[in-house]
């Protein structure tokens, strides 16, 4: 009973709020960045540009795993305690790495990377051959006409009216999107793919630690070096192939289905690969 202590640290709240702010800041990059590229790029070049954007987004986690591997080799209280007085090593199960250091480094780099966005122009001229979505234009035209109708009734709409207009536009857009079968199919397939990928990425480092006796630092380094670069290369090659052969919507769907089905067949090979459990007294074998 004397060894039991109640948790008194509320550090997890700061981590939660920090990740929430990070997510709010990072989220616009994907939808707005892709829309920006799609609007101001030629139709045949857009797939390559978008693929390059996603490839760079995959290189980030790779460097993140390597940075995590480096930080895991440093003791958690680095800068606050005498490192020479620490008698345990990273291979010890009691070792806790400097997990917080990665947040400081990544946050500082993100802050510096955000500065150039302040100098982007508000609008660009569309080049010849750029995408001109007639459906989007008509929808935007209808919304503008609706807003003019509402605003003409009262020159200075109240705050409640503005909120009502915002939610009515949002509900209309959401209904239009959810009634699109192609979008729903893509959304469901993306959910399945990312769910499997995240599970693989989450548990494989721990599997390497337990099964092969590797440290947290080395397992993170191995995952970052072997798992993410092939994904980034695949995304870039997919965009390059679409640009080279100028695939239509149907052609892109067939190409995506073929690659996904091939990946599914290769994934089945995981069921034939495995390792025997460690001999642990009282768990896998008896104490006798």
From TrEMBL:
Per the similarity annotation, which family is this?
Belongs to the organo anion transporter (TC 2.A.60) family.
Is the keyword Transmembrane helix assigned to this protein? yes
Determine if Disulfide bond is one of this entry's keywords: yes
Coarsely, its chief localization is: membrane
Entry keyword set: Disulfide bond, Ion transport, Membrane, Transmembrane, Transmembrane helix, Transport
Which protein is depicted?
A: Solute carrier organic anion transporter family member
Region Disordered: start-end pairs = 127-153
Which Pfam families does this one have?
OATP
Query: Where does the UniProt annotation place the signal sequence?
Result: none
Native organism: Nothoprocta pentlandii
Q: Which SUPFAM superfamilies match?
A: MFS general substrate transporter
Q: Name one GO molecular function term.
A: bile acid transmembrane transporter activity
| Highest classification ranks of the organism | Eukaryota, Metazoa, Chordata, Craniata, Vertebrata
Give its localization: Cell membrane; Membrane
UniProt topology in membrane:
Multi-pass membrane protein
Q: Which residues cross the membrane?
A: 56-76, 96-120, 182-201, 221-241, 253-273
List GO BP terms, alphabetically: monoatomic ion transport; sodium-independent organic anion transport
Name of the encoding gene: Slco1c1_2
Q: Which GO terms describe its cellular component?
A: basolateral plasma membrane
